[in-house]
Structure formats: C-alpha cells, structure tokens
Design brief:
Blueprint (H helix, E strand, L loop, with lengths): L2 H9 L1 H7 L8 H7 L5 E4 L14 E5 L2 H4 L2 H4 L4 E4 L12 E7 L10 H11 E12 L21 H10 L2 E8 L4 E8 L13 E5 L4 H6 L10 H8 L8 H6 L3 E5 L13 H18 L3 E5 L1 H7 L7 E2 L8 E5 L11 H14 L1
Parallel strand pairs: 1-2, 1-4, 2-3, 4-5, 8-9, 8-10, 10-12
Antiparallel strand pairs: 5-7, 6-7, 11-12
Helix pairs in contact: 9-13
Length: 350
C-alpha cells in the first residue's frame, strides 16, 4: 500500500478520530446480514469505528499500526491486526466476509486487480464483499485536513470490470453520481485475473476448469502442459503460482470467458465475443507488451476465424499477439516440446 498514505494515518490518528468520524453507513446492516457464519474482516479498518457492527468474530486490520491500536476502543471484541491491503496474511478461504469501506481507494489503480485477487483467495466461496471507493465524478480534495494521501478516482465501468475480473459476482453497484461508488458482491466460483502494470506478457486461457476455479490457479489439471512448458521456456520461474508469475516474472493471466466449466465445449460464441470485448478493455488500460492466447480454436471464435498458430499479423487491441495450441491434456496432436517452443518464441520477443 502507498507508504505516504499510511504515514499520514500513522501520525494523525488522534486528529482523525476527533474530526473524521461520520454517520454510520446505512449499508452495514444488510452486509452483516448476508455474511455467512465465520470470520469477517474490516478491511482498512482505521480505528475500528464500524468493526463491532459487522458481527462476530471479526478481524479488523489496517496498514497503519497507530490505527489498529485504537480498534478495541471502539470494538472491544474485534481482533486487531496490522496488515497491508495488497498482501493479505490469511490462508485461502479463511474469511466469510470483507467490509472494505473507503480503503481500496488508497491503492494505485493498476494494483487493485491483484489486491482483489488476493481478497478473493482469502474469502470462502459465497463470502460477502462490500467496497466503497471514490468516483472519478469528483476529484477535488483541496480543503482536505489530511493532505498527502493517495486517492484513486474510479471510472464506473472500469471498477466494474476489475471487481468482476477478480472473481466476484456483483449483487449491487451504486454510483451516487457525485463522489462515491458502492459495490456489494459475492465471492464466486471463478478464477481471478492476475494482472497489473508492466506486464511483459498477458497469458489468456479459454476459460477456467472447475479444478482451476477450486485451486485458484489456471491450467491446474495434472495433465495440462502449460506450466511445464512455461518453466522450460523461461516464461515463468515457479509453477502453479500466478501471483509469483506477475510479481516476479511480469507475466499476467486471465481468461476469455470468466465462468468455470468442465469443458470448453460448454461455452457459447456469445461468451467468447463478450470476453474479447472485456479483454480489449484490459489491454487498453494495462498495455502489456504482448498477449499469448492459449487455444487456437477459441481465438478463431472470438477474434479471427482464419487465425493460425504463431504471431498474428493484426495483433489484438493494438498489442503484439501470439496464438498457440490448447495445452489441455485432451489435445493429443501437440507434443510437450512444441508447447515449449511456442512459449520460447514469446520469451525471445519480450
């Protein structure tokens, strides 16, 4: 999380408590009611003003230690914790709800997809999510009593893409037309995008298998040849770890179609076309150096019916584009060494 922002909260906690407490959010009761039994989190809790309203048990965490130290003043039964919103300390599925009220707006925009992917990992299937962030309708903060904080001012449709891309099903999306956007969502059985700034390659699968959605890792089936080929080619340095691939190897991952299925045969052409439009928006925003589509057939349905494996003459979204065969174990026509050579072609160009 932005260190300058954290420092503002560290050094102004008493002034913040005195001058910034606002009315209790009206949405908090509905959120608390839809959280399944289990641990819920107050994400970026500040001094814990609302932590006690989220139900029990609740863990209240903030990147500013001075804020976390005040939590039990306002929420005596909460578990206070110092934690970074971009590097959550929870095991997979540990939480059943996450209340993120005016916290993720302090994260740089192109870092939010990974922060929400980490939250998706930390939430159990069906877990509830509340997010409120600043809208790009109002970017003025001239009379702020606490200057020096980072704010991201979110365009409505981009925020929707990011939340859905992180594997959440949106239940309610409210733009007040002035300053705030409120999102109520549920942790879905989907694979989150692992994308961000500075990607040298963006790997695009057709859609996640049910097993991949279960594990939170694309190409997770034991017979899939993607990860062995990605290691052998030098594209990535650790197998079955999309977070490491982005943060260390600068390789992002997403899918044309978000929903998980037992087979790509279950997907419709409309889903592919909708996915291609979503992917274009991601590419326009994050500008990867190149795109790698894993699956010639899917690319033909979504983009170019005459496409062949290799570098594409027209590219996709104005970005160099490579198309390779599907690495599924069901593809018996392509040998493991051929997948490696396809990915080596990408490595040589990045």
């Amino acid at each position: 999380m932005d260190r300058a922002t954290v420092d503002v909260y560290e050094t102004n906690v008493e002034d913040w408590i005195e001058h910034r407490r606002r009315a209790r959010p009206t949405s908090i009761d509905d959120f608390a009611a839809r959280v399944p039994a289990g641990v819920r989190a107050d994400v970026g809790c500040g001094p814990g003003w609302y932590s006690a309203d989220l139900g029990r048990p609740v863990v209240a965490f903030d990147a500013a230690a001075a804020m976390a130290a005040e939590v039990r003043t306002f929420a005596p039964d909460a578990w206070p914790l110092v934690a970074d919103l971009e590097r959550l300390p929870f095991r997979a599925g540990a939480l059943t709800g996450a209340w993120a009220h005016r916290s993720y707006m302090h994260i740089v925009a192109d870092a939010l997809p990974m922060a929400l992917a980490d939250l998706h990992r930390s939430l159990a299937l069906g877990g509830a999510l509340h997010v409120q962030v600043t809208s790009d309708r109002n970017q003025e903060n001239e009379d702020d009593r606490f200057p020096g904080r980072h704010f991201t001012w979110w365009p409505v449709e981009r925020l929707r893409d990011v939340v859905e891309g992180a594997g959440f099903a949106i239940e309610s999306f409210v733009d007040d037309g002035q300053e705030w956007i409120d999102v109520e969502a549920t942790r879905a059985h989907m694979l989150p995008d692992t994308v961000g700034a500075g990607m040298r390659a963006l790997v695009v699968g057709l859609n996640p298998s049910v097993l991949s959605a279960d594990k939170g890792v694309g190409f997770a089936r034991p017979g899939n040849r993607f990860w062995p080929a990605a290691i052998e080619s030098g594209l990535v340095t650790r197998a079955l770890d999309p977070f490491h691939a982005l943060r260390v190897d600068r390789v992002g991952m997403t899918n044309l179609v978000r929903r998980a299925s037992a087979s790509a045969k279950e997907l419709s052409a409309a889903e592919y076309h909708d996915g291609a439009r979503r992917l274009e928006r991601i590419v326009e925003w994050l500008a990867p150096e190149c795109i790698v589509f894993v699956g010639v057939t899917g690319y033909r349905i979504a983009v170019d019916k005459a496409a062949k494996a290799g570098w594409q003459p027209a590219g996709f979204g104005g970005v160099r584009t490579y198309v390779m065969p599907n690495t599924s174990g069901l593809n018996a026509h392509t040998k493991p060494a051929e997948f490696t050579e396809h990915l080596r072609a990408v490595v040589r160009a990045t």
